[in-house]
Amino acid sequence: MSSAQDKAGPSGSSPPPTEGPSQPASQARARRRRHRTARPNPYNVNPVERQGIEENQQVLFLANHEHIVGLFYQEREDHLELRSHKRSIELDDRIEGRLMKLGLIHILKVKHVNIDMPLLKAMVEFWRPETHTFHFPVGEMTVTLKDVAFIYGLRTEGIPVRGNTKGPWEEKIRAQLFPHANLGNWARETSEEAGARRNIKLKWLRENCGRVPAPGASDDELDRYTRAVAVELFGTLMFPDISQNSVPAYYLELVSGNLNEVPDINWGGATLASLYRGLDRAAMRFKTVTGPLMLLLFWAWSYLPVCRPTVAPITDLGQPSIDSCVPFGRKWGETRSFLGSHHRGPVENARDQIAVLDMEDVN
């Protein structure tokens, strides 16, 4: 059996064209091969030619001794707007028991923190959508399903997150959430096609939820309230979109019907996919980037010393049991001090810290 080098000749170049019908095909392959390899290095072209090179592909043209961070030092502006969300609907033991059956209770034990935007903006600069990894000078790293399970406590096995993205949403909201609510101002249109996709306004959702159902409330009422908590959770901590004040209505499909019969869903996989999508948007120069940014922040603090805070021990663990396990992300929600960490300042400082990391620095 001949090797690829035998076919290409001793020097690895294209074989000479042959006579007959195969000649055009051979020439086409040679042209494609030249097109793939004869690409300019961005550092060696004039500014006019450089504008024609796609920014999100420049890493492919770097020399062996160069790293993508050099591009950002030379020409990148801090243009990203990172958006994070915070959930606020109240819970009690009855609601938590239902969320436990859905596999969503552990993430609710993770406390909200203010996002370190300079750190995340610096990390975004090292993200490559081709590999879904951070190309740090010290090596490649990425967030994995195992990280999602440890940090958020989400299930990483089961059926994929999927559902119907078509309405009519008014009927579904009345049936699954609020049968007597005023639906006059519940939605924000997100498509030219009326009703094709609508977002539930978070303010409207929280106002209609009100307080936790009173003692003696029916199972149906408790289920409705639990669905509202889950929908808010989907749109804030797990897979939010670029809107700051609304949640896609189709998330309601994930927890519709009898909550006792909802199958085991791979919430962790969907959350990780949402994070990858948000980072891909950033790499492609979208101005607004979203996703589970708190997950990314906790991952960075867990593995990198850049702006890592000191935390107080967790004291309110409750009774030890598999149901009361506290996810690792809870650690970062305790009392924090940034003394000794590098900064909470400009993105350039965080970028400098990442650029000089050694293998010994990475946990």
Commentary on this structure:
With 363 residues, the chain is mostly helical. It has two domains: 25-66, no CATH class; 83-361, no CATH class. It is 36% helix and 7% strand. It contains 13 helices and ten strands. The strands form four sheets. Strands 2-3-4 form a three-stranded antiparallel β-sheet. A three-stranded antiparallel β-sheet has the order 5-6-7. Strand 3 and strand 4 form a beta hairpin. Helix 5 (93-102) crosses helix 10 (219-238), helix 6 crosses helix 13 (347-355) and helix 7 (145-152) crosses helix 11. It is globular, with a radius of gyration of 25 Å. Pfam families: PMD (PF10536). Residues 103-362 form the Aminotransferase-like plant mobile domain. This is Aminotransferase-like plant mobile domain-containing protein. Residues 29-38 have a biased composition (Basic residues). It comes from Rhynchospora breviuscula.
SSE ordering: HHHHEHHEEEHHEEHHEHEHEEH
What count of domains describes the coordinates? 2
Output the structural class: mainly alpha
Shape category: globular
Strand arrangement, major sheet: 2-3-4
- Report the end-to-end length measured between terminal Cα atoms: 46 Å
Helix content: 25-40%
Instruction: Calculate the mean pLDDT score and round it.
Output: 75
Estimated radius of gyration: 25 Å
**How many distinct beta strands?**
10
Low-confidence stretches: 1-22, 31-57, 73-77, 192-196
Proportion of β residues? 5-15%
Oligomer: single chain
* DSSP helical segment count: 13
Q: Tell me about the biggest sheet?
A: 3 strands, antiparallel
